[in-house]
Amino acid sequence: MSVPQLDPAKLQLVQDLEIEMMSDMYNRLVSACHRKCIPIKYHEPELGKGESVCLDRCVAKYLDVHERIGKKLSNMSQGESEDLTKINLQEKK
Q1: Contact (Cβ atoms closer than 8 angstroms) between residue 57 and residue 32
Q2: Where would I find the Tim10-like domain in this sequence (predicted)?
Q3: What is the distance between the alpha carbons of residues 12 and 20, in angstroms, rounded to a whole number?
């Protein structure tokens, strides 16, 4: 089975969208974990142990949930594609 080739303009668009989505996810992660783990008024110039542990757990959970959602959406998308293929085959009969 051959892989379809995208023209350079479409490939660039896909790459730009991927970068934009990853950048957005990173910004949301930083914002959410900072809000949750770092007090508004800094008491020390460096992170405390509790803050570091909180950030580590927050980032791990955020990435885990992001991965699970991505897999779920991918499975849903594949299921819809299969359903459309079945419908098209039935209509042709």
Answers
A1: no
A2: 12-74
A3: 12
- Within 10 angstroms of residue 33's Cβ, the number of other Cβ atoms is 18
Q: Report pTM.
A: 0.67
Q: What span, in angstroms and rounded, lies between the C-alpha atoms of 62 and 25?
A: 9
Cα–Cα distance for residue pair 50/54, rounded to 1 Å: 6
Query: Strand, coil or helix: what is 6?
Result: coil
Q: Vertex 23, ends 67 and 47: CA angle to 5°? A: 85
Residues near 36 by Cβ (< 8 Å), separated by ≥ 6? 54, 58
Beta-carbon neighbour count of residue 75 at 10 Å? Answer: 10
Distance separating alpha carbons of residues 74 and 56, to the nearest angstrom: 27
State residue 74's pLDDT score: 86
pLDDT in tens, 24-33: 999 999 999 9
